[in-house]
Structures are given as C-alpha cells and as structure tokens.
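Aminopeptidase, Rotaria sordida. Tokens?
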Amino acid sequence: MSDQDKKKLFERLPLTVVPTHYDLTIQPFLDTFKFNGNVTIHLKVNQPTDTVILYAVELQIDHAKITLDSKDELSGTIEMDKENERVKISFNRQLEKGDCELSLKFIGDINDRMQGFYRNKYTTPDGKEVRYGASTQFEPADCRRAFPCWDEPNFKATFDITLITPKNLRAISNMPIKSENEYPDDKEWKITKFDRTPIMSTYLVAYVVGEYDYVETKDSNGVSMKVYTPVGRKEHGHFALDIASKVLPFYAEYFNIKYPIAKADQIAISDFAMGAMENWGLVTYRETALLIDPKFSSMDSRQRVAIVVAHELAHQWFGNLVTMDWWTDLWLNEGFASWIEYLAVDKCYPEFDIWTQFVADTFARFLVPDALKSSHPIEVPIGHPAEIDEIFDDISYSKGSSVIRMLHDYIGDDAFRKGLHNYLKEYSYKNTITVNLWSHLSKASNKPVNEVMSSWTLQMGYPLVTVVEEQQSNQTRIVKLQQERFIADGSADDENLQWKIPITIFTKSNPKVIAKQILMDQPEITITLDNISENDWIKLNYNSIGLYRVKYSSKELAHLNEPIANKTLSPQDRLMIQDDVAALCNAGHQSFVDYLKLLLSYKDEDNFTVWKSIASRIADLSSLMEYTDYFDQFKKYRLNLFSTIQKELGWDAKENENPLVAMLRPMVLSIMGKSGDQAIIDEAKKRFQCHINGDLIDPNIRGAVYVIVSRYGDENTQEEIRKLYKAADMTEEKVRLLRSMGQSLNPNIIKNTLQFIFESDNVRMQDSASGLVGCTSSCIGRDIVWKFLQEKWMNLVERFGEKSSFLISFVEYCLSDFADEKKANEIKLFFDSVNTPVVTRAVKQVIETIHMRVKVIQRDSKAIQEYLTQL
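Tokens:
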C-alpha cells in the first residue's frame, strides 16, 4: 500500500460521541513494569448510536460499561483494532442523545521505548543500586498507550487524575495535589488525588512516579513553581527555576493573559526522547535541558537550558490554552514558541546577545535543507499522526520561527501583541487553525498578513534576490532586483515560484537606518536610492530578518569588505554575508575561492556568533577538502584564519568575561587543534592528564580538550575517556565525553566506540545519536559508520521503533558528508531495499546533498588548490 493510500484511509474519530471529562486512576507496578487502570469518561452523545469508538493500543481492556442518565447500566462488547490503534465498544441497544458515562478497566505495560507511560532507569546517589521510575510522553499520539481516550487534539476535556503508588515514591501530575491517603489494600501504598485540570487535549496530560528532590519558589504573580531533580542533586535545579520564575511573568504580561493554573512545575527525566515536553503544569525535560551544576556546567549548557525552558513555558499559552485543531498546524505551535523563546531570553538575559545567535542557529540553519528540491513547505497537510516525525524537522521549527520573526518585524511589536492577545482570548480552551492568527494580526495591523504569509508557509523554498544592475548619476543610484527560488545545486526552478518579500536596503552614509523599505511582489523591481556616492556600499536585508539570500555583483561584494572588517555592519549582517556567499559557491553561482578571499576580511572578527557561523561553513568545506590531496594546505588556511582570535582568547577565562567569550574559546581551540596546531594539541594533552589526576579542567573548554586528545590519542586515551564517562554522574558531562570518543582517526578506536555506544549497557538510547555523530567527524569514520548502519539497520529499527525520529537523525547526520556518486547510489539502493518509510525524505535530502558536493569538487577543486598554493 502506498503512503498516499494510507493518507486517504486515515480517518479521524467520528463526532457522534465526544468526551467532556475523564476520571482516571492508574496504579503502576515498577517491579513487573505493568500498570492497572480505571477510567470513567463522561460522554456527550450527539447522535443515537450503539457503538463507541476511541483510541487504545497495547492495552488489555477487560471490562466496559455505560451508565446512562437514568442510572441504567449497559455492558459493552470490546473489539480491538490493533492496526488503527482503536477500540470499538458495542452495546445491545442504542445510546440516545444526551449525557452518559463510559467506564473501562484495563492493564498495560510500562514500556522501555520513551513513549506512552514508560520506565526511567536511574542509579541511587551512592551509585550502588539501579532503580526505576515511570513517566509519560504523549505527544503526538501516545496517550492511547496509557489509557483509552479520544486521542486527537480537538477532543478537549477536563481530567481528574488519581495515582496509587508506593509511599516512598513521589506521585506528580499536571495539577496540584488535592489529597493524599493511605491505600486501604496495602499500608505501604498511598492514593494521591490531583485537582481537576482545565479543558485540555490528551497529549498534554502527564504523570510521573519516582524518587525526586525539588527546589521551589513563587513567581511575581504568585504561581507556585518547583523544579524536580534526581535525589541528592537539588542544587542543579536552581538555574532553571530562576529562569522560569522570570519568564512566566514575562509571558503573562506579553500576552496580557494570566497563567491559567496554580502551579508550573518542571521535572528532569533520566530517559527522555526529545529535549522537553510542554505538558500543562508539569513540563518534562531531558536532564541536559534542565539541570545545571553550578560548578561544572558550561556556559553553552546554561544558555541551552534558558532557551528550552523559555520555549516550553511559551507553549503553556500558545499550544496548551489555545491548541491547533489538527497536526497540520503544528508548525505554528512550534514555530511560534521557537521565536518567542528568544524574545524571553533576550529580555531576561541580554548578555547572551541571543538575537544574533538566532540568525546563526535558527535562520541560517533552515536555509540549507530548504534549498533542496526535496524540501517541503512549512505547512504540510498531515493525515495520520505517524507522519509527524517525518515532517517535523529544521524547516518546521527553524523556518517556522524565522517566518514569525519576519512577520513581527513587518507589522511591528504593538500590532503583533494586540493581535496575539485577541487571538489567545478568542480561542482560549479551544482549537484553532493558522489563518485565524493571520486574521487577528491583519486586523490589528491593517496589513495583508494572510496574503504575504501564505507565500512563505504554503510553498517550499525561499528566494534569491539578485542585485542585477546599478546605475549611478550624481548622488542617486538606481538598483534593479530580481527574485527566483534559490536551489542548493544552482539548478533552475522549474516551478518558477515567487514570494512577497519585505525588502530593506541600507547604505554607507547611514548604516544604522533603513534607507528603503518595500514589499517586492514582482519577479523584478527597480529602487531609487538618494544621497549615495559612487563608491558607497549598499546592503540588502537589514539585520537579516527577511527570508532570502542576496547575490551582489563582485564589485558590490568587494565594497562590503570594509564595513565587515571595521564592524560598521551588525553581527547579524556580517554573519549572513559570508553565509550567503558560501551557499552561492555551493550552487556554482561563484567560485569557492571568492569565499576564501572574503573570509580574510573577518580575521579581526570578535563576535562569537559570527565565528560560529564561519566555523560551521568551514566545517562543511573541510569535510569536502578531506576528499582532495591538498587537505593539509586547507588546514593551514584554517590555522591562519583563526589564529588572531585564538591568541586573543588563550586557554583560560578572564575575570568577569562576557558569557559569549566563554562559548567562543572552546570552538576556536577545537578548530585549531583539529587543524594540527601542535602547541594546542600538546597543551590539551597536558591539561587532560592533570584532569585525570584531579586538577579539573574548566567546564567551558572540556569539550574541546576531550575532542583534541581523542583525535590524536591512542587506545589508552580512549580507556581514560571511557572511565571518565562511566564515573560521570552528570548527563551533560557524559554527552561531552561521548561526542569526543569517535573523533579519533584510528579505525579500530572508531569501531570500538560504536560497540561501546550500541552494544554495551553504558549508553542510554537517547544519547546514542550524539556518540554516533562524533564517529563521522572524519572520512575514515564516515565509511565505518556507513558500514555499521548497513549491518545493524534492522536491529536499530527494532530497538528504536520503525517510526522513530532517531532513525532520521542517523541518516541525516551520518551520511550527508560523502562526496562521490558511488556512495550516493549505495545509499539509495540500500534504503530502497530495507523499506523504512520514516527516513524516505531524509534519504532523498542526503542523496541530493552528496550530488551537490560532487559538483562543487568537480567545479572548484583546481581553483581552490591554486589559491591555497600561492598563499
């Protein structure tokens, strides 16, 4: 059956019978990994029927009855439909229109797949005993694994949740505890009842059972806040608590809507598939996204925690209070939270200069996959929820949030806030679709929001704006601009897509002010600029807010060297000029020699984010240069490019230095080490030795030291790294070590690392991708990983689940850096033969990327070699 047929066949639940309230009791048994459950669901029958259909999977339902308004009881016949994850309950007489209650008894497994109600493995603080807790992960469609329910986002209801657990374990759910009593059947157990939830979707229900410590506070509006941590590590919760207590009131004010429930808790879960999940009132996190060790966490980790916490708390309004009608509009939910998280962090922590980082981490990030022909629009019609993992990628999150950023800039903050408030007010406790937000923002701003936005959300890709010609007379310049879809390998756009582009231009005479602002809604437009001298530079896309790349003439690009070097341009603009040129070189619009020359204007750059973007582009180019015989000359170029900033930063932190400097240092050290700077390699080895002997390395540079010593070390070094890994009690430290292991250039060490990741009991499933990606950091490692994936693919599918997004990561992150057609064909043939639908799009993207890389080498290799030789 084709994917198209499956889409057609998927039908949402009928509206004949709808739930209004659930009364749920769950009793987990952590010794056998089973749970007992009871649920009474209050129903509204809209049309007479003798069957009720709802979702349930991997549950054994052994009792079903309906209580009618008249107090009559009917027993139901239970029929499970495993393939469609549904249960049909039939009655021997019609249910008439009106209210009734459906009661179900069921048992299920506390699984080990990080979905539904699943188990978490942890070690006691003394390290001597392994124990288990249990927690939930229901988005998008796994609530049905925990209890029978109408598991679609628009069947909103209220929930009364009761947990029956051993007394020594905490029982936590979305709402505050209403009562806690001894369990009559067993004095060692307790019954915990929670307050009734607001009207909400099933995917936001959460409950956790286990051993936890916590820290607590109240925010400025009196909302109770706790951060739950592993036992003995409650000080690791303070940082996230501090952020949450600032961010929650910020949102309440920004949306002008009170946070709707009495508590906002956050909890670190030891086994967790995503980064975090916004369950209303009880946000669950992977440990690395919530816990910060005041002594040993890096600045990078602190910033990540700030961003993730701000993202999840934004969902408490945008997503939880107002929910998309169906998964097709999930992009808006995630895109919005991925934009406003930056607004909140910038407000609370301006020192992170977070909007500049947005351009490197979010904006420039989606521009790469979205230039591929195998891309997809942000808004994709979704049938079965199983399609979500396939579609939810950098484009949904990063392009989604970049579109929101452009829209916010286009209509202005006042209109944006007003429209947003009205939208959230109108749809509180309800479901909605994207165009409802557009119409509220249109009303508030008097601008054609829907018209402008649809070209960005409903078609894939984005434009390249080319400055085609310029005419200068006296102090006036006439500039002609053209737009066409930018395609990664430079091929023509057969569909001839066009966009409505908010264009901004600014010039040398007034570099901090937009000289011209215009909505480009034609394939070609002409703009007149006044008060501009012949040799003045012009720059399009002020602060890189518009979703387009720019191609300048070589003369115009040369003019921009000066404002790059003297930093007249903002970091956002400096960053995107080189990022655009690199993309244009990949597409064959110009030679990579132009890019290498342009980068020399950045030698005195001091901004962390600009360097981060350059480093990312240089890493892409390095992975190509590895397949040439002049890679050593390219490494010398890297050493020269990064030498000034490295000397300035050194190895050790200065007092009260900017947090961004603390993040820049390890990045530069790592590049210099990988480029073969012997003094840096020796210093890294020396510091590593001291670290093993108890003189600990500064957490901010640990990652860099581990990578360098792993790359140039032997089996003994690896043994030391593994020992540190096993001894580390902080997941952040474990992941740092894991990432470094496979970065060796010794094939045996890489093979042993793969074994350590996948075939020992040392690495949690959720961390395996981090270790695997480390193994692909060289062409030697890439080949070994590809061989490993082919040999073990079916085992991985079985272990992670055939619809798991982990499989997508393995394909995307491990196979994109090859540079020969033979490999591309191998990859295509292999994945054609194994038939794993969830990776179909990822495989297409990988093959397209490899083809593009092959063309770059064919086109530019000789010129790059000549340029590097004469340096």
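DSSP finds 26 helices and 29 strands in the chain.
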